[in-house]
């Protein structure tokens, strides 16, 4: 998958600037994050809430590295259309059916960019009387002007480039890449 010819094949002709995180590096970091999460929650019900669609691969890998009982559910919120710049509005399309009250809630996000999605979701989830509420993100661009809650668990400090792969898309393309790359203009 690291050969140039293989990258060109999965990208369907679209050019990438560079591979930012190789599949191996992601795997190692996700494994460590699973250990951090396991150690951070010694007791109580833990509900891991994946924010779709971007977190689907990360969440799938992460939960298998958490060595304690957990429940898994999802949230669907929309912010961007096909743009590479956030339009601002955040809409909740699917709300978890699982009860949240009295549980440790861990919201899992793929990447923190403007932070709008997370600010809104943490506010909504906070009203459901969780025992604790924290956030886990694979990537953080550190450009959010007013991020209210920093992630308790973070994979990587991301470059300020538009990234695709490992769940991250550009207009729904490239989510399936096993690595994370930045797109060429
Ligand atoms: P935010 O609300 O601006 O923090 O952005 C939230 C969502 O935008 C993320 O969950 C991603 O789905 C998407 N997003 C932000 N930056 C990128 C990127 O570099 N590549 C792909 N998707 C991104
Ligand atoms: Mg997206």
What does this entry look like structurally?
The protein has a 6-stranded mixed β-sheet, sandwiched between helices. A 3-stranded antiparallel β-sheet has the order 1-9-8. The chain is α/β, with parallel strands linked by helices and 185 residues long. The protein has helices at residues 4-11, 23-40, 56-63, 116-126, and strands at 16-21, 46-52, 71-78, 91-94, 104-112, 132-140, 153-157, 163-164, 180-183. It is globular and about 50 Å long. 24% of the residues lie in helices and 29% in strands. The protein has 4 helices and 9 strands; from the N terminus they run αβαβαβββαββββ. The relative contact order is 0.21. Strand 2 (46-52), helix 3 (56-63) and strand 3 form a beta-alpha-beta unit. Inosinic acid binds next to strand 5, helix 4 and strand 8.
The run of helices and strands is HEHEHEEEHEEEE
| Poorly predicted spans | none
Tell me what portion of residues adopts beta-strand conformation: 25-35%
Largest sheet strand order: 4-3-2-5-6-7
Q: What's the pLDDT, averaged over the residues? A: 90
Helix content: 10-25%
The dominant shape is globular
Query: How many strand elements?
Result: 9
Oligomer: single chain
In whole angstroms, the N-to-C terminal distance is 22 Å
The total of helices stands at 4
Radius of gyration: 16 Å
Class derived from helix and strand content: alpha/beta
Which small-molecule species are bound to the chains here? Answer: inosinic acid, magnesium ion
